[in-house]
Write the structure tokens for this entry.
Amino acid sequence: PNATVVITNPTHLAVAVKYEHGKMRAPLVVAKGAGIVAEKIKEIARGHKVPVIENKPLAQIIWKTVEIGKEIPAALYKTVAEVLAYIYRARGKVRSEE
């Protein structure tokens, strides 16, 4: 439940990512799984109202290259930021430029 978003591919993989603006240097992978584990991650996310976003290429690259408890690599910042921005807009939490 401490994830900001779960990114899926859509059925076989799920990656839970947490990001707190101003508190974290980069988004962090807090859980990931395939098959039944992916389904459980999505189920828990929905139960806690954590958005589940389908992005097959992003889910696959994070799943293959980032371990649980590790930050998203700089090469993926822009793509992950786009997913987070989409969620923030949907929730009405867009900040004005500071």
